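4.2 Preliminary Data

To establish feasibility before requesting continued support, the project team ran the inverse folding procedure on a target of 528 residues. The structure was first converted into the token representation described in Section 3, and no sequence information of any kind was made available to the design step. The complete token record follows.
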């Protein structure tokens, strides 16, 4: 086999897989879609939020999937949508994603020197913490060193690229961070790291002491239930509209819908396709989609450490033989489209000219027979991290049987889904991924033996994409990497589904940054 990417990689933990797919470590519950496909037309959706100017005042109540009693105000831990939505309005990151690429936050620039030995962060001036003290470079240094500590629950993956512990402030608004390896686009690496900046000296977090630089500050917190946030009028990017934001932690998708229907919430994140197809459950409500660029890609990763997926003929046969249209119809119920075996749709540099593979069952059967795979066992593993993921796996298994494989399904809970030992024993693993940057998509997946695709050309292309400072060279390298994965890789990405929410018609200011499952709420409010 070809060598794996020569990159420092994160530790092999379930938390890191969930961080990649954008879900919380506590697991997510969702209803099964078995038998839900029908010919009934999908109810129409509204893309985005109203564009009218919001009025000042009022309380916006929004429901997200949470992590129960395990929830924390600590922005260095917790990856459930409710926690991430809270972190994003209480704290700021150095950079964040907008329209698929890195945008300036507390940092206005990140530049590497000509020898690629260090990165200089230029920080935004005029920013203040919620307690009125000025934000300085020492706060960033403290954050980087805090996240570099090996005793953290979740040490920052930036340590694979930067020597965070050696960061130094050269003045009040400049931080120099030594690099561990060449990094050509540091802003993207920082944007994807979920690095919320904490104040110098901070080591614990509670409702009475937590301060950030974000547009809202914490006034009350009950883990697994609700967080109350008060507008911070001194926010550097202009004060928000709602006087108060209440985040409700509600794991069950239908319960979130019920909260909006019954007037207990104004917004329910991440509702099911089945719910959307039934239409808004009351007057003054609307089903919203986040737009095609922010769809979630559904698929399977083939485990090439096992004999059948390691054979390129088997991989090609599966790509050619599955019925993507049937999967899309059964799972998305009209709220999605077939995919072209690539993850990372919506991110900068994503290839949009790779066609969806045409179905050729005869050729797929021929390839399996040639590989000696006909009649051989093929185990598919799935957990319901996304609505319909289990149903898609059930249909996938039936389609594989139709091609001649002795396919079977291992369906596990979300607490077991990405258990490394369990993944190792399976040939294919169900896998959802939103519009994550290509840097994260390719480097994090390569860190897991059961998800990685060892290939010399891929390894070289990814290394170049990460290290070059030339945008044109980076675009070319990402093109090569994606061509490899589309041609012979171990991804079977069959469809892209809308990310849906339920909201009151006059709720506005929902801004999709990192993920539409936990939008940025700094400007949330109500139109007149």
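Position-by-position output of the design step:
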């Amino acid at each position: 086999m070809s060598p794996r990417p020569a990159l420092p990689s994160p530790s092999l933990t379930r938390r890191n897989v969930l961080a990649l797919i954008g879900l919380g470590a506590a697991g997510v519950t969702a209803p099964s879609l078995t038998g839900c496909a029908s010919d009934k037309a999908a109810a129409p959706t509204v893309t985005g939020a109203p564009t009218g100017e919001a009025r000042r005042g009022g309380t916006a109540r929004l429901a997200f999937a949470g992590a129960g009693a395990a929830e924390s105000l600590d922005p260095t831990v917790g990856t459930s949508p409710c926690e991430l939505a809270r972190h994003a309005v209480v704290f700021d990151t150095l950079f964040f994603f907008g329209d698929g690429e890195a945008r300036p936050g507390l940092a206005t620039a990140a530049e590497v020197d000509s020898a690629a030995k260090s990165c200089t962060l230029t920080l935004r001036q005029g920013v203040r913490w919620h307690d009125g003290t000025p934000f300085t470079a020492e706060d960033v240094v403290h954050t980087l060193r805090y996240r570099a500590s090996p005793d953290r629950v979740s040490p920052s993956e930036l340590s694979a690229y930067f020597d965070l512990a050696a960061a130094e402030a050269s003045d009040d608004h400049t931080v120099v961070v030594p690099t561990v390896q060449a990094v050509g686009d540091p802003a993207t690496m920082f944007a994807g790291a979920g690095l919320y900046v904490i104040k110098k000296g901070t080591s614990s977090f509670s409702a009475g002491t937590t301060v950030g630089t974000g547009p809202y500050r914490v006034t009350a917190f009950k883990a697994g239930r609700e967080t109350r946030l008060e507008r911070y009028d001194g926010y550097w990017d202009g004060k928000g509209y709602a006087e108060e934001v209440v985040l409700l932690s509600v794991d069950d998708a239908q319960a979130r819908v019920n909260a909006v229907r019954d007037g207990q919430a104004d917004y329910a994140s991440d509702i099911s396709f089945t719910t959307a197809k039934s239409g808004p459950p009351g007057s003054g409500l609307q089903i919203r989609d986040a737009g095609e660029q922010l769809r979630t890609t559904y698929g399977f990763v083939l485990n090439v450490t096992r004999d059948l997926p390691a054979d390129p003929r088997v991989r090609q046969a599966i790509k050619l033989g599955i019925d993507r249209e049937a999967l899309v119809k059964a799972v998305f119920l009209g709220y999605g489209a077939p995919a072209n075996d690539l993850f990372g749709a919506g991110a900068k540099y994503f290839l949009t000219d790779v066609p969806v593979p045409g179905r050729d069952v005869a050729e797929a059967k021929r390839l399996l027979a040639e590989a000696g795979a006909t009649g051989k066992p093929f185990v598919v593993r799935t957990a319901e991290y996304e609505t319909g993921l289990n149903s898609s796996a059930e249909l996938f298994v039936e389609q594989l049987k139709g091609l001649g494989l002795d396919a079977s399904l291992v369906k596990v809970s979300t607490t077991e889904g990405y258990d490394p030992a369990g993944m190792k024993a399976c040939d294919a693993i169900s896998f959802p991924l939103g519009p994550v940057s290509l840097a994260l998509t390719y480097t994090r997946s390569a860190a897991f033996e059961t998800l990685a695709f060892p290939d010399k050309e891929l390894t070289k292309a990814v290394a170049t994409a990460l290290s070059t400072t030339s945008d044109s060279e980076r675009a070319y390298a990402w093109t090569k990497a994606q061509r490899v994965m589309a041609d012979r890789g171990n991804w079977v990405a069959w469809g892209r589904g809308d990310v849906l929410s339920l909201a009151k018609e006059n709720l506005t200011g929902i801004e999709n940054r990192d993920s539409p499952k936990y939008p940025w709420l700094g400007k949330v409010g109500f139109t007149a």
